Every structure is written in structure tokens, then in C-alpha cells.
Structure to design on (572 residues):
RNA sequence: GCGCCCGUAGCUCAGUGGAUAGAGCAACGGUUUUCUAAACCGUCGGUCGCAGGUUCGAAUCCUGCCGGGCGUACCA
């Protein structure tokens, strides 16, 4: 059990007769200011009313009876009725010693293991991935790692767009405007060109292309041999291009069940919905009306084609039958909010009502002009070139700062630092805000960035190298830890808060909760690093104590960054 | 029109109903014979869009208004 949970339980148990114990327990928070202690219980102000006593009197009673064991000092009543809790230094030191050989850093198994399906990334396979895909991919990957770290069963599902009308456009392009030489040299690029060609013609009002593309889609879905063969031909190179990016990003999936996988089930879905009376005919289409929504949920268009709504329902049906998940996350652009609201409602009415469905929405990626992010030519920015740019930015910095490192290693470091820059910039922002894509900020290597954390880690590793200390030997020796300096104590408390941070980040589905914590951790380490000599500490015992604290910090950073999908470096 | 999201320092953004609203960048000043200065310490900077309400307590919850983004039946 993490520290916060233990305090909450203790305070809940200390609730006097007539006081809502759960409310009192849940009112425990990390302290808002170091001078108020490490944690505070804020419930007495609100709860005193029901007892008819003053908040300070209630707080005093709670302080008297609460059993914090040897963990904390007796809480102090402050202000209008706050209870400030200070964790005992000797308890912190003892707990840190236990963590030295605890690979989880204090993360306990969950009370109840949940099965979580996370639907993320989901690119259209026919198009190169662009900057718009980064958020879903990086956020989804982080959430998957978080739930796994907390001991839950995670299924990472890439719901590929491999069957929709974009293929109709490509098929139209293939048949009317293809460049065989271009296709031979780079299939994906040529297919993307054809797609964009069709798209721009349609957007320009070319009804002929629109209709022709629709027909090609319909033929593909109906099993037309030529279109099916072309689809079979296109898919491998499309998938290969996508996998190359995931491999570079260090993102993996457990399943890649795209839209095509569900195609055979769609007719059955509509039949079932219709026979149960959920789905009805309307303006030639088959739709489900949902209370509170003006627009219905369309499961079959008037031309007979199924929609992504149908596919999404089939997907839920399949996932529930296959994995019986407790939680289903859709890491998708906030613009699809209405769709998911309807989808979840229809799924529940359809009988799949034991799943907690969540649309993990995120804001749009914008350019500096606050318009959706594009290159100067008006094209979307390819993900690959985005990564390359970040890496070369990192390389320039490493070349300038660490010319002594050999060039091959500098290249590897640049790759790691560059990817970290992109991921961290994305994850450190509240998901829901639109994301202003600022090159300078994105590749900045100081301040609240990936590189700052990697740097903090590298400095710790440097201490161990310079002192010729083997961290594994140190851990098994389990030295006594002393917290004489404020910087030591502040860092130690931060290490202890790792488990509750993961819990909070996962509950809120917010990676930036974790990045905030890691930034604070790296900050506290930097302060400690300035104030407390490690290798040249006054005594061998203090040296060991500080080595242990540094080692724990390094492990928190490594593990925490790992959950963001960011790797650490021995040197940089 | 209706729905969802947003409005916090010059800029980009954090902020689980709690105490004096915080970072990063930018600006200004300081710190290196000592473990990586990609760092640290300090200064400057705020009618938390506006107005009401609920509450012991509101940036946070509710209502209204103003401003912006997005979505709104056959793309996904």
C-alpha cells in the first residue's frame, strides 16, 4: 500500500462517531507547502458542521486518536482546522532502505487486477504517419505502460484504418493516375500521393471522383476480385512503413485488429440491432436513435455500406467476448467526442454494459499560427521527418557539449535525446488542451524537458562511475540512510511518493501527472546535487547514505521515464 | 441553433474545493581549483475572461454573459 493510502486509511479509522469516515480519509492530500508538513487532512472544516462542533475541536480530537504508528508525528492542528502531518525522518530512512532492493520501488500489487483494452494510434495505413498521430501513439503507449506497472492486464490494440473509404480513393487513383515507376521505388509514397490527389479533387468539388471513389470502396467491400487483390498488394508495404516508425519509437502492440478484421461481422451487428428494435430505418439509412442526441448513430448508410460506427460496435462485441475487459480506453482526438458518446451509449444498451468505456480525448496539434499544424507548403508534417529534426537538434547540442564522446555513441545519444524531446513535450501537457507545436520548445533541451531528466540521470550515473561504486553491491549492502540536510529529506520524500503518483496518473488517465512528478524529482535532485557532496561526504557512512539516495533517485527517474516511453543514458 | 472543450504572468502552459495561485521560456543579476554549468541560486512579472451564486473556504462547483476552438445524418 502506498504512503498516501496508508494515511487515508489511518484517518478514516480515526473518524469520531457521526463523522463520514471515508470523507475524512479521502481528504488527506500531499501538503501544499513544505512548511505545513508532508501531508494534510482537510476534512475537518467540512465535517465539523454535522457534529455541531468547531472545526478546530474536531481536528484536535482526530489528532488525538489517529494511529499513525511510527510513521508520522502527531498531526498538528493549523489554521481553520487543517491537520498537518509530518512523516518521521527515521521512518523515511527505514522505508528507503527497504526500497533499495525492491524492484518495484514500492508499487504494490493492485487490490483488484483489471483487464484494460487500450485502443490507440490507429493510423490510416494508406497514408504516411504525420504529426497528428504522435499524440494518440505516445499517450496511449504511456497509459499502457502505467496500467501494466500497476499490475493490471493490458491489451494494446492498434485499430488500423485499413478498410475505409480512403482505400476507395486510393483505388480510384491507382486506376486513373498512377505512376508505376514511383510506385516501384516507394509504394507508400505513391499511394499517399494518389490519396491526396483524390482527396483534393473531391474537396475541390469534383463529384465524379467522389462518386467513383465511393464505388471503388463499395466494390472492395463487396468482394470484387480486382480491388481485393490490389488491397492485398498494398497492405504489406503500408504495414511495413508503419511498423518502422513504431520500432523507432519503441511502441509495441499486442494486437493489430484493423477495420478489415471486423468486416465479416458487420452485417450481423446491424441485423442484431435491427431485430432487437434498437436500429431503425431513417431516410434510407439504418440508425440507432439515442436519447439526448439530435444526430443518430448510423450503422448502415443509404447506399448499403457500413460505417465506422458499425465497425466500432463489432469491435466492442469482439473485445468483450475475447478479453472481457473492465476498462476500454480510446485514445482519440477530442473532435470525435460525439461519436464516442453515442458509441458507448449504444454499446451499453446492446448489452455490453459491464465495461467502463472512456474516450481519452486530446487536443489538436496546432501550428504557431494556431491553425492545425502544416508545413509551409500546406502539407501535413511527416512523423519521420519530425523525429529526424529533433534528433539532429539533439546531435548539435551533444557535439557542442560532449566532443570527447566518440561519434557513434553521440549518434545513439542524439537519437535517444531527440525522441525523448518529442515524447516529453507531448506528454507533459494536459491532454485536453490543444497543442501548440513550437519547434523551439519541442526541441529545447533545458527546462521542463526530456533532456533535463536524462541529464539528471546521467549525472547520477557519473557519480557512481567516478567513485567506482557498483550500485548492485550498494543495494545489497543496504546502508543506513540519514537525512540531515533539508535537500536530502526533500529528495527522500519525493522518492517515497512514486507509487501514489502512478496511481493518480492512471486514475486520471493523465501522463502529465507523472511528468510533473518527475520534474519535481529531478529538480530536488539538482538541489541535492549542489548542496550535498556525495563522493566527498564527511564520512564513509554519509557517503553511503547519499549514494543510496542517489541510486534510488536514478531508479525512480529511469522507471518513471520508462513509463513515458523515454530511455535513460549513462552519459550525455 | 444545439453539444463538447478552452480562456491563469510578456509567450507556452501546470494547478485532485484548501492556507500567500506555480513552472518553463523570455528579461535582469549571481554561482565553476570540488561528483556533467544541458545545472544551481536570486529578481522581475497576476482584476485566474466578466458578473452573480453555493461554501467556513472557489482558478477549481453552479447559472448567465463575453471571447476562441471543435463537432453537429450517409469521411473515419
Amino acid at each position: 500500500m502506498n504512503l498516501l493510502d496508508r494515511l487515508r486509511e489511518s484517518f478514516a479509522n480515526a473518524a469520531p462517531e457521526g463523522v463520514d469516515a471515508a470523507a475524512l480519509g479521502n481528504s488527506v492530500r500531499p501538503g501544499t507547502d513544505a512548511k505545513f508538513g508532508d501531508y494534510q487532512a482537510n476534512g475537518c472544516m467540512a465535517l465539523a458542521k454535522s457534529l455541531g462542533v468547531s472545526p478546530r475541536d474536531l481536528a484536535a480530537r482526530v489528532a488525538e486518536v489517529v494511529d499513525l504508528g511510527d510513521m508520522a508525528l502527531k498531526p498538528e492542528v493549523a489554521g481553520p482546522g487543517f491537520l498537518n502531518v509530518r512523516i518521521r525522518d527515521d521512518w523515511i530512512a527505514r522505508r528507503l532502505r527497504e526500497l533499495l532492493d525492491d524492484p518495484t520501488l514500492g508499487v504494490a500489487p493492485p487490490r483488484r487486477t483489471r483487464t484494460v483494452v487500450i485502443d490507440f494510434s490507429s493510423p490510416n495505413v494508406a497514408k504516411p504517419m504525420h504529426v497528428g498521430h504522435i499524440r494518440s501513439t505516445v499517450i496511449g503507449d504511456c497509459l499502457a505502460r502505467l496500467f501494466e506497472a500497476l499490475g493490471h492486464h493490458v491489451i494494446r490494440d492498434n485499430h488500423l484504418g485499413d478498410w475505409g473509404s480512403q482505400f476507395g480513393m486510393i483505388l480510384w487513383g491507382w486506376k486513373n493516375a498512377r505512376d508505376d515507376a514511383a510506385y516501384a521505388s516507394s509504394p507508400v509514397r505513391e499511394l499517399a500521393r494518389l490519396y491526396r490527389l483524390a482527396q483534393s479533387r473531391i474537396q475541390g468539388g469534383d463529384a465524379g471522383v467522389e462518386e467513383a471513389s465511393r464505388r471503388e470502396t463499395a466494390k472492395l467491400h463487396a468482394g470484387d476480385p480486382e480491388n481485393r487483390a490490389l488491397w492485398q498488394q498494398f497492405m504489406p508495404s503500408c504495414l511495413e512503413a508503419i511498423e518502422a516508425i513504431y520500432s523507432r519509437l519503441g511502441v509495441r502492440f499486442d494486437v493489430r485488429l484493423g477495420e478489415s478484421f471486423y468486416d465479416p461481422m458487420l452485417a450481423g451487428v446491424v441485423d442484431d440491432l435491427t431485430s432487437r428494435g434498437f436500429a431503425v430505418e431513417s431516410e434510407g439509412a439504418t440508425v440507432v436513435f439515442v436519447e439526448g442526441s439530435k444526430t443518430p448513430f448510423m450503422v448502415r448508410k443509404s447506399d448499403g455500406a457500413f460505417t465506422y460506427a458499425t465497425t466500432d460496435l463489432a469491435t466492442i462485441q469482439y473485445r468483450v467476448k475475447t478479453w472481457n475487459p473492465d476498462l476500454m480506453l480510446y485514445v482519440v482526438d477530442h473532435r470525435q467526442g460525439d461519436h464516442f458518446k453515442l458509441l458507448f451509449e449504444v454499446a451499453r444498451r446492446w448489452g455490453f454494459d459491464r465495461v467502463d468505456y472512456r474516450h481519452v480525448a486530446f487536443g489538436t496539434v496546432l501550428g504557431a499560427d494556431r491553425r492545425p499544424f502544416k508545413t509551409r507548403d500546406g502539407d501535413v508534417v511527416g512523423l519521420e521527418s519530425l523525429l529526424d529534426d529533433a534528433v539532429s537538434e539533439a546531435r548539435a547540442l551533444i557535439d557542442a557539449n560532449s566532443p570527447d564522446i566518440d561519434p557513434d555513441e553521440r549518434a545513439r545519444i542524439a537519437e535517444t535525446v531527440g525522441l525523448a524531446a518529442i515524447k516529453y513535450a507531448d506528454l507533459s501537457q494536459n491532454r485536453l488542451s490543444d497543442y501548440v507545436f513550437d519547434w523551439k520548445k519541442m526541441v529545447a533541451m533545458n527546462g521542463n524537458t526530456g533532456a533535463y531528466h536524462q541529464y539528471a540521470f546521467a549525472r547520477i550515473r557519473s557519480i557512481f562511475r567516478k567513485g567506482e561504486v557498483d550500485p548492485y553491491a550498494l543495494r545489497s549492502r543496504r546502508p543506513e540512510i540519514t537525512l540531515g540536510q533539508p535537500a536530502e529529506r526533500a529528495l527522500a520524500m519525493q522518492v517515497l511518493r512514486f507509487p501514489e503518483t502512478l496511481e493518480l496518473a492512471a486514475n486520471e488517465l493523465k501522463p502529465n501527472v507523472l511528468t510533473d512528478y518527475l520534474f519535481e524529482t529531478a529538480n530536488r535532485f539538482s538541489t541535492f546535487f549542489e548542496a550535498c557532496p556525495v563522493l566527498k561526504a564527511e564520512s564513509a557512512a554519509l557517503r553511503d547514505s547519499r549514494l543510496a539516495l542517489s541510486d534510488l533517485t536514478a531508479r525512480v527517474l529511469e522507471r518513471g521515464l520508462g513509463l513515458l516511453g523515454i530511455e535513460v543514458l549513462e552519459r550525455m
Q: What stands out?
A: The radius of gyration of chain A is 28 Å. Residues 225-249 of chain A form the longest helix (25 residues). The CA atoms of residues 374 and 380 of chain A lie 5 Å apart. Chain A has four domains: 3-87, 88-108+383-572, 115-158+264-360, 165-249.
